[in-house]
Amino acid sequence: MQDILINWTPQETRVAVVESGAVQELHIERALERGLVGNIYSGRVARVLPGMQSAFIDIGLERAAFLHVADVQVNGVTPRAEHGASGTPQTPIERLVFEGQALTVQVIKDPIGTKGARLSTQISIAGRLLVFLPQDDHIGISQKIGSQELREQLRARMGVLTAPAGSGTPEGGGFILRTNAADASDAELADDIRYLRKTWAAVRERSFKSAPGTLLHQDLSLAERVLRDLAHEDTQSIRIDSKLQFEVLAKFGRDFTPTSVAKLQHYAGERPIFDLYNVDAEIARALERRVDLKSGGYLIIDQTEALTTVDVNTGGFVGARNFDDTIFKTNLEAALAIARQLRLRNLGGIVIIDFIDMSREDHQSSVLAEFRKQLARDRTKITVSGFTQLGLVEMTRKRTRESLAHLLCEPCPTCQGRGQVKTARSVCYDILREILREARQFDPKEFRVIASASVVEMLLDEEGQHLAGLSDFIGKPISLRAEPLGSPEQYDIVLI
Asked: Does pTM surpass 0.85?
């Protein structure tokens, strides 16, 4: 069973999804930094790049957004569906868009790092049960609805519900049935269809009147998305610690997610709501490199712009009867922990996992099967490959929003995100080389070195002989002054 906790303040909303007493997912949204995924804008083509088959679109953000040819829809068809023998789109982007053109676009990926938002011209609007595709005309079914008989029944029902009165053909626009539509009544589906078509009509009307860079439609707030996207039949409670927001959510739920309203509760306890399951401590642990396993093993998780690596280590685990069993049990436990950490940290893109080497193929198969089983709980699209020749598991997890670390942290100003700084001795040698270089160009009375206390101390002590030798060689005195600079690598050489 699942419990959802919502901690709301005017500046920030935090959501924790708890199962079996353990936090499984964390979602954070700040009022001044709301995610853009799902937002629809009136855009203007700023630049077309034929070499990259892409275009930069101005949607009013700090950085221009990015539109790839595969995400451009023309007459209801995206070029990705019209591939030639070479596998490249037949219609080049320079024939689809031009500079200065006005486009209605939707954000499909938030700006991440130095990259701008990624856009699509194929608009989709999510409801409680359905996703509306106004430029499409087909009925799709969530892959998680596995029964072929049920899929056909739902498709037939939708065909009737989307047809205008007295007509055998559907109105414009297609729909995708979400997983929670499997048990929905015709009345519930009809309500969602009306809501989504009304929303799209308002977007279209605004697009005709709005200048490029205008926000035409904003996705729901995080608290509202909890009712629409996170709550399901196994959710036993949704607790929120704000009376005001509880009433707002209750009204929203009565209108759009009636099955979730009964689970919604106002939490009025004296303890902060996140203290019920030590969520703040879980957030702190989710920002660390090391994740300890109950057996004594541990994971090391490193996130870079290109990919995320996960290294599994046995640590102090020696409990099994032999070495192979020790490795196998550590890897099984790690498979569960890694799947959970991917959700907690919202890690996306390429992920490389270095399980401990296993000599037996049946152990490899069991670990991979357990890993896939745990990943199946993830609501984000995931692709997993088997073990490579080097014994690594490669996978991808769709990245649409910033990871937890990128949302809550910034690069260290001392090491600039490298995770390490030069030793005091290395900085000493940099200073000695710099003094020699400047002595060849300038003729001051004295060189004064301003550096961190640890560097000055080393120049006076262990490197004092080298400093004196340099002073004799250039024929100038060298004085030292310790100052608390921003980084131990920083120093200044003043010519006096």
From this structure: no
